[in-house]
Write a structure and sequence with these properties.
The chain has helices at about 25-35, 45-50, 50-65, 95-100, 175-180, 185, 235-240; strands at about 1-5, 15-20, 25, 70-75, 80, 90-95, 110-115, 120, 125-130, 135, 140-145, 160-170, 170-175, 195-200, 210-215, 220-225, 250-255, 275-280, 285-290. The chain is of the alpha+beta class and about 290 residues long. The radius of gyration is 19 Å and the shape is globular.
C-alpha cells in the first residue's frame, strides 16, 4: 500500500492510497460513501491504531469494486509530505561505506546521530529555500517510518516497529556545520527536509537493505548507490535510538546518505537557486524539489 497526504481545491488535507500512476483513492470519501466509517484524520492516526492499516485496506478493497467519486486524479491534487508534522525526525550521519571511502574518512564504529525539527518538512515539488551564498548540499536517503511505540527495542524485534518507508532529502548547510562545529543549525533550516512522495508500507518492500538509491541535480547523477552499503543497518539504528528515547508512530528515521554529496566534488557542487533535485529510491518513487533563495 502506498499512503499519501494531499491537498485539493477546497484547501483541506486528505489522506489517500495511490491506486496507479494517475489516481488516488480518497480514504475518507470512500469510507463515508461505502458505509465503512473511519475516523482517521492523518497517516499518523492510521499508524496509531494497531489495526489501522487493515481498516484502510478494507475500504480500498471495497472502493476498488466501484467507479466512485473517491478517485482523485493526480492532476487535480497536490501531494504533500506523507507525514507533514512527524513527532520526531531522527538522522544518522556517516552511514554509507562508499561515502566514507570517497571522503577518505574512517569507518565509524558507533552511530553518529542528529535530529531535525518538523518545521524543516516539505513535500514533493515544494521549494527548498537556500539563503543566498550559503553552501548547501542535497543528501538523498532512505527514510524509515515507525508504526509502533517502542522503548529499548532489541534489534531482533525492530521490524515489528516499522510501518514502511519513504524518501528523505536531508538538505544540509555545510558552511554552518563548519562554523558551528556541530550539526544543529546546518540541518534545521526551514524546508530542509523534503519527504515523499508517498509512504510505502513494509510488506511491499522485500528487502530495504538492497534498494538502489540515486540523486540527480538538473538531470545529472550526483549520488548512485544501494542501501546494501549502509554501515549500520535499520535494526541497529532502531535499537540505538530506542535505547534513550521512545519511538512513536509517525516518527521518521533518515538512515544516511551515500557518496556524492556536494563537498565530494571538485569544485564542490553546492545547490543553486533554480536547481531541480530528484531523489529516486527503488520501490519508493522519486522525490523532486526545486531550489529557491
Amino acid at each position: 500500500m502506498k499512503l499519501v497526504t494531499f491537498g485539493t481545491r477546497d484547501n483541506k488535507h486528505h489522506i489517500g492510497v495511490l491506486k496507479d500512476n494517475s489516481s488516488v483513492i480518497d480514504i475518507r470519501m470512500a469510507s463515508n460513501d461505502l458505509g465503512i466509517p473511519l475516523s482517521f484524520e492523518s497517516i499518523i492516526h492510521i499508524l496509531e491504531d494497531p489495526e489501522g492499516l487493515e481498516k484502510v485496506q478494507r475500504v480500498i478493497d471495497a472502493a476498488g469494486k466501484h467507479a466512485g467519486p473517491w478517485y482523485r486524479s493526480l492532476n487535480d491534487i497536490e501531494l504533500t509530505a506523507p507525514i507533514p508534522r512527524p513527532g520526531k525526525i531522527l538522522g544518522v550521519a556517516l552511514n554509507y561505506h562508499d561515502f566514507c571511502v570517497r571522503g577518505k574518512l574512517d569507518t565509524p564504529t558507533a552511530l553518529k546521530v542528529f535530529m531535525k525539527a518538523h518545521s524543516t518538512v516539505v513535500g514533493p515539488n515544494d521549494a527548498v529555500h537556500v539563503p543566498l551564498e550559503r553552501k548547501v548540499t542535497y543528501e538523498g536517503e532512505l527514510g524509515v517510518v515507525i508504526g509502533k511505540t517502542g522503548k529499548h527495542v532489541a534489534s531482533a524485534d525492530a521490524w515489528d516497529h516499522v510501518a514502511g518507508y519513504l524518501i528523505v532529502n536531508d538538505f544540509t548547510a555545510n558552511d554552518y556545520i563548519k562554523e558551528d562545529v556541530q550539526l544543529m543549525r546546518g540541518k534545521n533550516l526551514d524546508t530542509f527536509c523534503p519527504m515523499g512522495p508517498f509512504l510505502v508500507t513494509k510488506e511491499e518492500i522485500a528487502d530495504p537493505g538492497a534498494l538502489a538509491i540515486k540523486t540527480e541535480v538538473n538531470g545529472i547523477v550526483r549520488q548512485n548507490s544501494n542501501t546494501s552499503r549502509l554501515i549500520f543497518k535499520i535494526p541497529e539504528i532502531i535499537e540505538y535510538f530506542s535505547s534513550f528515547l521512545t519511538l512513536e508512530p509517525g516518527d521518521v528515521i533518515a538512515t544516511g546518505t551515500p557518496a556524492g554529496t556536494a563537498l565530494q566534488f571538485d569544485p564542490p557542487a553546492f545547490v543553486q537557486p533554480g536547481d531541480v533535485v530528484a531523489v529516486t529510491v527503488e520501490g519508493l518513487g522519486t522525490l523532486t524539489n526545486i531550489i529557491r533563495s
